[in-house]
């Protein structure tokens, strides 16, 4: 079977074009039709909808999608397994648990002091980091990280976190319960710019730093020892990757809740299109992740208009079957592809 | 080029190796022979710096190996391990090119290296193939090519742990001829773990015999590869039959000694 793929430049151009198109549609679509004057008059009704609701929401979707897809691709290289994803190894669950914990135990206080846009991402990051480190430590064997143990440990940590979330919900009052449940379903509706600003501050360094590791990630795929013999400081690379993944996913979870499957299927589709080379995979995944997320957000507003579906439900509804079909395809073809 | 003085490893039950001295010379090919579990891979791991010796010192080109940064070390030493896990659909050319990571090779030089190795290892028709679709022997040849791309621009150390285990006879000879040519032409010091006594006697300049966690003998190939020594090492009667070229062939037809 020849390894024929599209050239990285072609794929990048197509993705950027599609992203611009879908973003334009997404800005325009909604209960209110926006004209050109919305752009020129930020204080008018249309302008407020555009600048306070749709634009931040678009940017939130873009950044969340890019972060989820890129950290997914990085996690797959880190664990040398194309089916790894931060959500499978407990990052999202740990992040969610600590966010719900804060919401239930100190939500009112945070809201009162307007600290939630800063404290919640921080808590999500720390929770995600803690659970990742726990999973990695538990699945480390003498010969490196065992992927089977890793996924099983991730499942156990996920289950523990979910039951923890359940207990917290049980303890919470009706308003917090509603807020936490809605947030857990995944939702990118933005009210104002604060979440967007925080996410930009997190996303740019995370995405740029991860994209720089592409070459070394390729070598990591040869095995930890072999990468070391090629001159890669594997331990330091692994540490950087775990930190960046926890930070990126933590920030998304803090503002978007649980949005699953993006990190799994987006890198996979990119590999099918232009091969597994991480020097391109990470940036292409960021673009396709952003596109996928904007599209999902658009659909979530269109399908049950004028109400909206939590976007996490939609990504799981699309991503789940896509993931299953990739899995079945891999099994049928002897596990030999992508 | 690579010197081990009193190097030993005594941590862990399975990876013990008694103290040994060893000197790999540029332009020479040293073969390592020994039964399973004798410590051959431990030897490679120690010499490559993957495993830290519990005693003794290793010097690469006169400098302590532990003083090298990982990247510097990779520019002077290239190593092939037994297991090559790779579960992603890179093209064969991409896999081979990964070996150039620590070197600052200009692209035309890298292409030239890849072409030469592809020719020598019969990989030319496979370069654009998906690595995951290769047979075991083809994948091993691709990995060997990757390791050989990494050889330094100045004479360096090449350590190969069973690089021919999945290859057919023709490809074994081809690979060994290529490795010997590279070593002699560019002055690299090669150490390779082998299981085939006849390949070792034909291609190696020096031979090391390893048994039960100790380096039992080392020297020039003709001195070391005596049927009585090999029989004792492998615990089966091994005989040598004379051939026209004077090298002889080793065979063993008997069941192991009780």
From TrEMBL, chain A:
Give the membrane topology: Multi-pass membrane protein
**TM stretches of this protein:** 12-32, 58-79, 91-111, 117-138, 150-172, 192-211, 241-269, 281-299, 311-331
The cellular component terms of Gene Ontology attached to this UniProt record, alphabetical and capped at eight, are: plasma membrane
Annotated localization = Cell membrane
What Pfam families would the database entry show? FecCD
* InterPro entries cross-referenced by the UniProt entry: ABC_BtuC-like, ABC_transptr_permease_BtuC
Keyword Cytoplasm among UniProt keywords: no
Q: Which keywords does UniProt give here?
A: Cell membrane, Membrane, Transmembrane, Transmembrane helix, Transport
Write out the GO biological process terms. siderophore-iron import into cell
Q: Coiled coil: which residue ranges? A: none
UniProt keyword annotation of Nucleus present: no
MF (Gene Ontology): transmembrane transporter activity
In terms of domain of life, where is this protein from?
Bacteria
What the record says about family reads:
Belongs to the binding-protein-dependent transport system permease family. FecCD subfamily.
Tell me what this protein is called: Hemin ABC transporter, permease protein
Query: What organism does the record attribute this protein to?
Result: Marinobacterium lacunae
Q: Organism classification, top ranks?
A: Bacteria, Pseudomonadati, Pseudomonadota, Gammaproteobacteria, Oceanospirillales
From TrEMBL, chain B:
The ABC transporter domain is annotated at 2-237
Name the InterPro entries on file: AAA+_ATPase, ABC_transporter-like_ATP-bd, ABC_transporter-like_CS, P-loop_NTPase
Q: State the UniProt keywords alphabetically.
A: ATP-binding, Nucleotide-binding, Translocase, Transport
Q: Which SMART domains match?
A: AAA
Q: Name one Pfam family in it.
A: ABC_tran
| Gene Ontology molecular function terms on file | ATP binding; ATP hydrolysis activity
Function summary: Part of the ABC transporter complex HmuTUV involved in hemin import. Responsible for energy coupling to the transport system.
Please identify the protein, giving its name as recorded.
ABC-type hemin transport system, ATPase component
Annotated source species: Marinobacterium lacunae
